User: What shape does this take?
Amino acid sequence: MNSKYDIILVGAGAAGFFTAINIVEKNPKLKVAILERGKEVLTKVRISGGGRCNVTHACFVPNDLVKFYPRGEKELRGPFHQFCSGDTIEWFEKNGVELKIEDDGRMFPISDSSQTIIDCFTNATKKLGIDVLTNQSVQSIFKAEDYWKVETNSETFACQKLVMTTGSNPKIWEMLSEIGHSIIEAVPSLFTFNIKDNRIKDLMGLSAFASVKVKNTKLESSGPLLITHWGMSGPGILRLSAWGARELFDKNYQFVLQVNWLNDLTFEETIEKLKELKQEHSKKAVSKKSPFELPNRLWESLVLASEISEETKWADLSKNQLTNLANQLTNGEFQVNGKSTFKEEFVTAGGIDLKEINFKTMESKLHRNLYFAGEILNIDAITGGFNFQNAWTGGFIVANSL
Assistant: This one.
């Protein structure tokens, strides 16, 4: 059986739905279908943001927004000038979904439920007459003279224009590489570090604003660092994992992490500060109370790691102990052995090589009438609504250029 459409989108996730809806809003006469290999649509949208769907981020300046994308920063600048976070908010409002901004800049539907976004999309596709066909696992794509042929496990489709919105699906990447596209191999991007170390052993749940770097590399980051029962997590660590996705993969996730618990204080400044404390608090026990913005239990652990006993008073600190303590505070070295996936939001770095895409239209430079949107491209971001924003922007541009 051969089904003909003007446009077929492969992949019924965020990018697929948004693109299809925008296409038909602009050209109501077009016959459009979304093919989905599973029996459910929008599965990632459902679980994203802990089931609340982190739709976008309250960062409204394109040149600032691109800085959240380890891969895609340069390429997304133009697209974000066409469709940015502000446009996303306006689009969802126009479609009956109001968004709210949280303290950390993440934006969610006011309902706090991803179902609101799913309903918005599925209602719009029904209203616009877009066919959403599930259990259609694409087996091959073939370019005929002036149309595309898409074969699934159950039927064959033909269309003028083909839009790929399959996210990080290795099988589809392989099909695209067979028609000439280069695929940047996928590696995990957002992950936390597995560290077994006595200094943090019983401190799970504590956090501090720290700067972190991977020893002997240029990789560094800063932000809240959270101690967990398997090691370290939190925004600072996740950012480091995203920017270092390739390099840390090559190291097989075995490396030394250097932590400055005082964030921007240098070793020298810390020594000076400790000397002042030695004068001021001479009679007090060093381990008792943190003189810095650090949780007391973490402070105590670092004091003990500096070979200073619990009873030692400030006045009795030797020069050696002061040096040790300043080192633990500003340059603690932790051996990382492996990684853990961050929550259920599995993000990969990898996909279609960005050099092969025209970012004014999101069309393939190798094949006419083949378009891409979302995570199928080698674009990824840190957590906070940025991956969705890339999907919305790409979808909008595809719809515009069609």
